[in-house]
Amino acid sequence: MFKYIWFKEVKESLSTWKGMLWLFVSSLIFSFTSYLLLTDKELSLLDQTELLWLLSKVIIGVAILIVAIDASSIITSEFEKETAESLFITPLKLKDLLLGKLLASLTLWGQIYIVAVPYMVVTSMGSGLLWGFAGYVALLGSLGITAMVMVIFAISLLYRSSKNTLTTSLIILLALSIPAFFSSTLTNNPMAQFFGVVNPVDNIFSSLDNVLVDYHQSLLQNWNYLLPLLLFLIASAVFMFFAAKRFQKEGVIKND
Amino acid sequence: MTNAKLKLIILILGVAIMTLFSSPARASSQAVTASAPLTIQILSAQTLSGTAGDFVTVEGQLQNTSQIPVTDVTIYLSLVDLQNKLPVDLEDWSAEKGQYIGSVDPGQTLPLRWKIHFVKAGDYSIAIVADTGGNNMPLISTITHFQVSPKRNLNPGQVLPVAFGIPVLLLLLFAFLNYRQTIKHS
Amino acid sequence: MDTVISIKNLTKSYGSAKAIDDLNMEIAQGEFFGFLGPNGAGKTTTIRILTGIIKADKGEVLINGFGLEEKEKIAGIIGVIPESHGFYNWMSAWKYLQFFADLYQIKRDKQDNLIKLLLQQVDLLNSKDSKIGTFSRGMRQRLGLARALINNPKILFLDEPTLGLDPQGQEDIQRLLKKLNQDGVTIFLSSHLLPEVSNLCSKIAIISKGKLVAQGTMDELRRTTHAKKQYYLKIQGDFAPSSLGKFPGKFFKVSHKSDLSELTYEGSLEDANELINILKTEDMNILEFYPAADSLTDIFLKLTK
Q: Hey, which residues does B38 pair with through a beta bridge?
């Protein structure tokens, strides 16, 4: 049953300008970044592995932002466009709806990833790091984005408003990105260090650094970054589960 | 002789004079002025020049030519941009700007090594400076000059087709999909 | 006749406000059931509970013998046009019905014929490939009806299906509903349009402030609202009720035109007969005399005041 919801969402994103615009914007950002990295006088002097690390952060950062914005309205739009009642009258279950929408969000990530592949190929030429680069961007991006989308879905079910969901999601993303702005002295602070351990964005970027700059490509060598990510994924799933339970208790239509 | 070179020579002479005529009032453990018994040399002077982006190793040595140990020794690189007449912030050039040696025994010779990354093209002079703490004047090695050539662009010919081609390809794809939709619904 | 919808002690509150208060109703198979009430009476809440959109606080509901917890079984036998329902404007009518056919797990090889038939029924076959975003309100309502029929339901729940439609649009929908009912579909219709309900429905329930105030056929409702009947009189000559002195009952809508008097008398049958006798004694020529039927509007207003 979930596959009909999934296919509907994918068809909608291809039929409307919404989905196309995301991919075009992504390609522009990747073009600008990769061109700058390879041709700018000072940036191009960086070690190639550092170039790849920078590009991988841009790919995942852009993808997380775009998918988060899209996911903020993918469920709430059913309430705002008044199509939710028609859906829930059918044999469709809430879990099928959530799974279908989750797969649709991951499909958007997949599309952004496919757009990013040529950029990954051209920047990693001669480094021998293409498979590690592409593989870890796929793995870490998928884990991080899946977790993020589930959090957003939970918020959607609680708020039932795309505006509120989007605002909250962006605040969460900003909070997770804050360590990137810390100076190196601040990251020595125990609180900042703890935050770095639990922060999924931090773990993604640190793992990429570990793979691309330090050449530690095996999963075992990255377990200390993958484990917190997996735990965050589980926590997100639990959050979404409880939000779904509350939604079912309140009913499809909250106030008559 | 360029102005910058002249300034450097004057600086060195000044340091040397001040060191020679500095006050003898010191703690007994540092009765001998630290700068005098140490000699510093840059050994890799001939191999320093390169291209922007290169990683090179600056090799040198520190020797205690006196009869007593010299303590609390810190050594660091001093880099001057001769074209812009400015000292260079080594932040991007080297991760190991300063090294703490500690104590150098009488007669001991210690190898010195820095890995530096040529970040910007230009003409430079480099020296190794040793500081022994307290009121002692730092000791400086001989000045070495080197040049960093500009780096040729890294394969821009390969990134351009992708950087321009992918957005254009996507636009064409979307236009085609849109056209098909319009035909279907009309 | 078998009961297909059984509602017992249904109660639903929103905070301290009771939306539905101890509702009891039974709808038989094949009935065209009208559900009336003023704004905020609880009609939409009732339909949403029956269709599983919201949960009641108390009470028991059986839809064709299934409890509301058997959502999948109920979903297979009911069709619904909710009060407010949106559409996926980017889809064509055909794709829209195909999407819902998939959700009802109708096999692909059966879908084409089914969708074609439904679009024909609602007169949208010529617009099957047009985007729903280009549809008029009437077309959307017809498409909504087609969607409600996609699973060949036994029971149809309709919440204001003709709201906002022009008279032609209303007639189109009403004609379709009549045909469906004739084909055996039980219809539960909630509507503000009293003429529509009185025209279509075989049985009517009236709800006010969450409570059921009356239920039955039109005749049963009339009997509920007054023990006395109304009679229409047309008399030749100038007749004034005051000339009768103290007479039981009530006279109203009294009018005089040329040499004619028209009035409505409300009273018991015996008093009406007595009136006729008095008029005859006074040599008044009674041109017309027959019982006047209370309209549904009158009944509704009386019961929901």
A: B64
Residue ranges covered by each domain of chain A: 2-249
- The CATH superfamily of B36-158 is Immunoglobulins (2.60.40.10)
What is the predicted ipTM?
A: 0.87
Summarised one tens digit per residue, pLDDT across range A52-93 is 888 899 999 999 999 999 999 999 999 999 999 999 999 999
Distance CA B140, CA B130 (A): 6
The residue behind tokens 């589980």 is: A234
- DSSP letters, A37-96, are HHHSTTGGGS-HHHHHHHHHHHHHHHHHHHHHHHHHHHTHHHHHTT-HHHHHHSS--HHH
How far, in whole angstroms, is CA A132 from its chain's centroid?
19
Which of the 8 DSSP states describes residue A120? H
Cross-strand bridge partners of residue B129: B76, B140
Share of residues in chain A with pLDDT > 90 (%): 50
Which residues from A are below 8 Å from B166, CB to CB? 27, 30-31, 115, 118-119
Measure the N-to-C terminal CA separation of chain A; round to a whole number of Å. 29
For residue B26, the model assigns a pLDDT of 41
| Confidence check: pLDDT of B25 > 50 | no
Q: How near does any CA of chain A get to the CA of C83, in Å?
A: 10
Residue of chain B whose Cα is closest to the Cα of C130: B185
Task: Please give, rounded to a whole number of angstroms, the shortest distance from the CA of B181 to a CA of chain C.
Answer: 10
Amino acid at C305: K
Exposed e or buried b per residue across C75-91, where buried means at least 16 C-beta atoms within 10 angstroms of its C-beta: bbbbbbbbbebbbbbbb
Read off the tokens for B123. Answer: 């003409």
What is the token pair recorded at C141? Answer: 């309502």
Q: How far is A77 from chain C (nearest CA, A)?
A: 11
Nearest to A253 among C53, C80, C100 (CB): C53
Q: What is the mean pLDDT of residues C103-131?
A: 92
The continuous run of DSSP H or E covering C222 comes out as helix C218-225
| Pure H helices in B68-155 | none
Token pair of A214 as six digits: 């330090």
pLDDT in tens, C29-54: 999 999 988 888 889 999 999 998 88
- List beta partners, residue C261: C235, C256
Q: Which band of pLDDT confidence, cut at 50, 70 and 90, is reported for residue A146?
A: very high
pLDDT, residue B46, reads 72
CA B133/CA B30 separation, integer angstroms: 10
Cα C63 from Cα C67, distance rounded (Å):
6
> Nearest Cα to B76, choosing from B114, B29, B106?
B114
